[in-house]
Write a structure and sequence with these properties.
alpha+beta, about 10% strand, PCYCGC
Amino acid sequence: MQKKIWIGTWIMSFSLVLSACSTNETTHPATKHVTSSGDVRETTSSVDKLPSFLHKHDENMTLLYQQAAQHQTLLEHIPCYCGCGESAGHQNNYDCFVYENKQDGSIVWDDHATKCGVCLEIAATSIREYKNGKSMKEIRQMIDETYKEGYAKPTPTKPL
């Protein structure tokens, strides 16, 4: 009887150790936190693993977040005109979607763009025009011209 209890306890302990060592996303859920500006930031294991805050949005939002992550260099050269430079410390339109790309391949997503039509429109237009063959410089000029009046001060995006 003692031996059966010991074996059962050992199997249970071994199972717990195995599950604790697993790298499966379900055992290591994405980390989330809310910034002082009210934006949600969520870390996932890679650019291919989208944040859970997108689950409540339609597939167009998900697609735009995927596209933004895949067009980092482009969107880092495009300013945002929603006021997020001052309110959230963003430097460019990419920051509206992604807070940080970590060296281990994980990514810290930002939900700011899910609440802002200006951010979404700037990213969608920039990506579309880039895919249509326009240069980053042409796109930057077009965005600056489109949003120069009636919008917030642009993010302090580095010049091209």
